[in-house]
Design goal:
Length: 270
């Protein structure tokens, strides 16, 4: 099989995976939430039951953030933020910090435990910390980043003694300490230059970043309500434009993907 056919096959597969993720997310958001928007963890034969635990929330939020970056459908980002707010109000320890495994509405518990060990499946606290960092960067909300760092501090002694047992949390700490970047792509969603720029960015492994898409088809697209700093980050000359920023201080906008990649490289080489 030649390279062109391989490339087309990969693109087709990516669309299949994105659509499968979208269907899964839509099912959970429609069928596995109660009237207050809280998650429910079991569904069988049309019946949803049992309140969700911390892990159910954080992995769903993580998935929604990834789905946003795959599709740039703001609906999924909004739902991630909503669930994150519910998670904090239901699971956060207001005395010592960190997140309990069970919600505050859970009855008949002798003790509410907290989990941090990152085994084959990362712990709820570790995933929550990274979600908080990412949402904090997307929304420019430093309070969420402070929550993420508070989780790391709560478990800092355990992490210090055996860091290899907390790999997801170490990734979160790496993101927090930086360098990291925010990337805003402005352009028309269906134009080839926009798709080409996004494709190149996705091909590069850039874990300590968030990517947002600011469409040009509206004077105030919905992403601006979530990330107000994107309001004036528009395409230049009608071409897809990248705004590469670190700590919300942006380099010169560019429509050249090689230049954008060099700007990103400069940030991570500091």
């Amino acid at each position: 099989m030649n390279r062109t056919k391989v490339g087309l096959k990969l693109i087709k597969n990516k669309n299949i995976y994105a659509e499968a993720a979208r269907k899964a997310a839509d099912f959970v958001l429609e069928k596995l939430r109660n009237n207050q928007g809280k998650l429910i963890k079991r569904y069988r034969q049309g019946e949803a039951a049992l309140p969700a635990h911390l892990d159910d929330y954080v992995f769903m939020i993580w998935g929604l953030l990834e789905l946003y970056e795959a599709s740039f459908e703001v609906f999924y980002l909004q739902k991630a933020i909503e669930l994150n707010e519910i998670m904090l109000s239901s699971f956060w320890d207001n005395v010592n910090g960190g997140l309990f495994f069970s919600a505050d509405s859970t009855d008949n518990l002798i003790v509410r435990s907290k989990e941090i060990y990152d085994g084959a499946i990362p712990s709820g606290n570790s995933v929550a910390a990274l979600n908080l960092l990412r949402i904090g960067r997307i929304t420019a909300n430093p309070e969420l980043e402070k929550k993420a760092l508070a989780i790391a501090r709560v478990f800092s002694e355990q992490i210090h003694h055996a860091p290899s047992g907390f790999t997801q949390m170490m990734s979160t700490i790496c993101f927090a300490l930086g360098p990291s970047c925010e990337i805003v792509i402005a352009g028309h969603r269906d134009k080839e230059d926009t798709r080409a720029m996004l494709t190149v960015l996705r091909r590069n492994f850039l874990p300590n970043k968030v990517i947002l898409f600011r469409p040009d088809d509206s004077p105030r697209p919905s992403i601006v309500n979530i990330a107000p700093y994107t309001e004036f980050q528009r395409s230049v000359g009608g071409k897809a434009t990248a705004y590469v920023c670190t700590n919300f201080a942006c380099k010169s906008p560019t429509s050249d993907i090689a230049t954008a990649l060099n700007q990103i490289k400069e940030i991570f080489q500091k």
